[in-house]
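In response to reviewer comment 3 from the previous cycle, which asked for concrete evidence that the modeling workflow produces usable outputs, we include below a single protein chain processed end to end. The sequence was submitted unchanged, and the resulting structure tokens are shown without manual editing.
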Amino acid sequence: MPNATEVLASQMIHALHAATDGRAQKWVMLHTIAKRLKLMNDNATDAAVKLAVGKGWLLFEGGHSICLTDGGRKRVQ
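The workflow returned the following structure tokens.
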């Protein structure tokens, strides 16, 4: 059973996939995805990003931009 951080990380990659139409190397501001998901807890968001990066689903750059990896795109599909 996935924990809350895993669920949020999955929701984030799905929202990012939708925001980028699944295109590779398309960067989006993290706050844009957080806003789509109505995330209010920065600690939970940070934990989900770290988990998704660790699992190879996302790239995180500059403290504000995220991009799906091929692994993240495959997980959504």
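The longest strand covers residues 58-61. We consider this sufficient to address the reviewer's concern, and the full set will be provided in the supplementary archive.
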